[in-house]
Amino acid sequence: MFFSSTRLENRLLSEVGQVRDEFTNATKEELANRVGFRCSNPACRQPTRGPQSDSSGIVNIGVAAHITAASPDGPRYDPTLTAEQRRSAENGIWLCQTDGKLVDSDAVRYTVESLRAWKVAAEQVAARELEQRLHLNPEVATVLKRMERLMPGLLAEMRQDLTDSPLRREVVLLKRRWGYGAQGNELVYYYDDHEDLDDKLQILANEHLVREITYNNVKRYTLSEKLAEYLGAP
Predict the structure, then answer these.
(1) DSSP assignment, residue 40?
(2) What is the residue-averaged pLDDT of the chain?
(3) Could you give phi then psi for residue 221, rounded to 5 degrees?
(4) What is the pLDDT at residue 121?
(5) What is the mean pLDDT of residues 53-64?
(6) Alpha-carbon dihedral sign for residues 168, 172, 178, 182
């Protein structure tokens, strides 16, 4: 049977159960590989692949979940996406079976934004593990993984800044409307971009990953070498 590929007709067909924009096996494999076959829920990180009892079998308890649903009756469905976008890796997240069911059962709590944040954080942790940066300081590895869960966006921005300026350690917190005479050797982070920015820096300070050095009305910190090294500084 021939179906038109227009978005409207695809949506109508989906509504009567004839079309569901599923991932290909290659896309599922890509999603799993990019997080090291671990659940992307930062509170879980359950391994999802391992051996069966026999000598050759493999057990898989992971699922490639849609961030926005594969069909109109699913959670977080986005009618503006094409079928190709809906079945792409960008619209997927690798989860254990329990969390796959969880996020689809409560779309109000598990929003598109929160699932995308999980995905980014899980891929970043997998990259750090691949680079063995978590093994450089094993005594704080658990703490660093927790920081990735709590503030993935801030750590991602710090990581990029240290890629561009690997020797910088001083951090200042600003609002974009403030006038501030930067000396050019600071890493600047804005309250406008990061919710609860003061609290996040306080948590980093509590874990001895940064040290507060405020001496005027602008919050100021220095990065510890452990944190800088973890984030990619040489």
Answers:
(1) S
(2) 86
(3) -140, 165
(4) 84
(5) 88
(6) negative
For 74, the token pair is 């699913």
pLDDT tens, position by position, 75-108:
999 999 999 999 999 999 999 999 999 999 999 9
Residue ending a domain, choose from 130, 155, 187 = 130
Residue 150 belongs to domain with CATH number: 1.10.10
- Cα–Cα distances in Å, from 2 out to 9, 10, 161? 12, 12, 51
- The length of the chain in residues reads 234
CA distances, 138 to each of 45, 65, 143, 230, 233 (Å) = 18, 32, 10, 11, 17
Out of 75, 103, 130, a domain closes at 130
Tell whether 22 and 112 lie within a shared domain: yes
CA 92 to chain centroid, in Å, comes to 12
Instruction: Indicate the pTM of the whole model.
Output: 0.60
**Which among 30, 37, 115, 29 has a CA at the least distance from the CA of 69?**
115
What's the domain range around 37? 7-130
The helix (run of H) or strand (run of E) holding residue 192 is none
Segment 181-185 mean pLDDT: 70
